[in-house]
Design brief:
This protein is mostly helical. Helix 2 runs antiparallel to helix 3. The mean pLDDT is 82.
């Protein structure tokens, strides 16, 4: 293990020992919120990828009717 990694780990442990229980609870809550946000973003990305796939496959197969049907079924009026 390099000295830089060892020093960084030592600094982390010192900060951890010096942190109060309230600080640690607050930080855990922040991290949990960030994890939930990442999960929401990942789910949204998966949904968008599904939409793109639903459009690209019929387009690649030159199936205009399937593309039109998909677009019509997912169109929402403003």
């Amino acid at each position: 293990m390099s000295d830089a990694v060892r020093n960084q780990g030592g600094r982390f442990l010192k900060r951890l020992r010096d942190a109060s229980e309230d600080d640690l609870k607050r930080r855990v809550e922040e991290l949990e919120a960030e994890v939930q946000e990442c999960r929401r973003l990942n789910r949204r990305l998966a949904e968008l990828m599904d939409v793109v796939e639903e459009l690209l496959v019929p387009l690649a197969q030159r199936d205009e009717a399937a593309v039109r049907a998909y677009l019509d079924s997912h169109r929402t009026p403003l």
